[in-house]
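We close this part of the discussion by returning to an individual protein. Part of our work consisted of pairing the sequence of a single chain with a tokenised description of its backbone. What the numbers capture is local backbone geometry rather than side-chain detail. The amino acid sequence and the backbone structure tokens for this protein are reproduced below.
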Amino acid sequence: QVQLVESGGGLVQPGGSLRLSCAVSGTTFSIYAMGWYRQAPGKQRELLSTIASSGSTTYADSVKGRFTISRDNAKRTVYLQMNSLKSEDTAVYYCNRGPLASWSWGRGTQVTVSS
């Protein structure tokens, strides 16, 4: 059974940065494209970024130029570097397969951007 454990969230001021991590277990991580998603209160979960097994990446317009996705296959971990954070980035952040999430969701990690 695949397990996803997100970490690295927290409270940050507007303009600040955070680096999220997602540790994946129970599957052959390196062969799968991965994605980062977020869900803000009262909104649907949205796909932010994907990274293929080859390393190619995609970004939603809302985070392009501010967020960077990466992966370390040896550590079975996918990362999301978030810079220039805005209040509208406040949400619970999740990882899963990308662009179609087919694994059970982890608990996510809360990111709050506020002064």
Q: What stands out?
A: The mean pLDDT is 97. The radius of gyration is 13 Å. The first strand starts at residue 3 and ends at 7. Residues 16 and 85 are 5 Å apart (CA to CA).
